[in-house]
Amino acid sequence: MKTSDFDYILPPEYIAQTPIEPRDHSKLMVMSKTDGAIEHKHFYDLPDYLKKGDVLVFNESRVIPARLMGRKSGSGGKVEILLLHTVKPGMWETLVKPGQRVHQGTVIEIGTGDVSITAEVIARGQGGIRTVRFSDETKLNELGIVPLPPYIHTPVEDPERYQTVYARVAGSVAAPTAGLHFTPELLAKIQSRGVDLAFVTLHVSTDSFRPVKADDPSQHLMHKEYGEVSSEVADQLNQAKAEGRRVICVGTTSVRLLESAARISDKNILSEFAGWTGLFILPGYDFAIPDALATNFHLPKSTLLMLVCAYAGSEKIKKAYSNAIEHGYRFFSFGDAMLIV
Question: Of 31, 62, 195, 261, which is the most buried if we count CB atoms within 10 A?
Fold first, then answer.
């Protein structure tokens, strides 16, 4: 297996720069996991592929205003800080640009006047990773902005459009984008058909849009992400599986979290989970939980594309992506969706 096996050519005009309105009017490709058969629908048609007793699993993590613009104390050189996760109160692991110019001991000034803080670099990691101590982290929400992926060049008028309508637990630096297609009305329609909803939390890191650079994907080091599955949700999903009802994951983040929780048990039974996961799913992986998957179209050579190939089969996914390009689907975060059943 090579990383190049997960590469494909995508003309830039297929990368969605703005979200579709309303949310559920995006296109939906429905693909059979069994034979690769494809149907072209819209996301508002999703309830037609659900049945009473199904359980849809959503990642309710909320994107934080993680992007901070600052300047080096003394020289005034511009510095961009992306918050990754807290180490302890006042201290964060961050991604700093330009990383090569920000050394341990560097002090970065953020904001002006009464709304200003400093960030001191106290440890240096690889690839721009820096551990930073903030003088007052209570002002981070006020000073930061919601980060968009690097391939989106058009500003979003409403930052809430890069949040799912059910986002509740703050902590992600990128949205769990498969959920961006849902509206409150669509969720209500789904529930009216006897479909249950379950909510878990996995705080998404920058790995969502970071290509694998190693020639051998098994050599790629996944950034760990923090997630939680409550005991109530674990029991709900275990009961569904025991009764032969489908568990349908919304997004690759939900899959990774549930699979991480299931791996605790030798019997692939879910239990309460709260911790970090660096699970990297490649073709050949034996899935324990999802019976179907709703997901977006992912970047070439990405860990997310590798997971989808592991779930549905690389050849089927390659054909599906080619078909999506032929039919003018929009790709990546603000793009269209596919349902693998």
Answer: 261
Stretch 176-189: mean pLDDT, rounded?
Answer: 98
Residue pair 171/226 in contact by the 8 Å Cβ criterion: yes
Order the strands of the 55-59 sheet from edge to edge: 38-42, 27-31, 337-340, 292-296, 247-250, 55-59, 196-202, 225-229, 273-277
Q: Where in the chain is the domain with CATH 3.40.1780.10?
A: 3-63+155-340
- The CATH number for 3-63+155-340, chosen from 3.40.190.150, 3.20.20.30, 3.40.1780.10, 3.30.70.1350, is 3.40.1780.10
> Is the overall model pTM greater than 0.90, yes or no?
yes
- Alpha-carbon distance of 86 to 108, in angstroms, equals 18
The first and second tokens of residue 158, run together, are 């409403």
CA–CA gap between residue 277 and residue 338 (Å, rounded):
25
- CATH fold, domain 67-143, is Thrombin, subunit H (2.40.10)
Average pLDDT over residues 280-284: 95
Give per-residue pLDDT as tens, 86-115: 899 999 999 999 988 899 999 999 999 889
| Residue 329 scores a pLDDT above 80 | yes
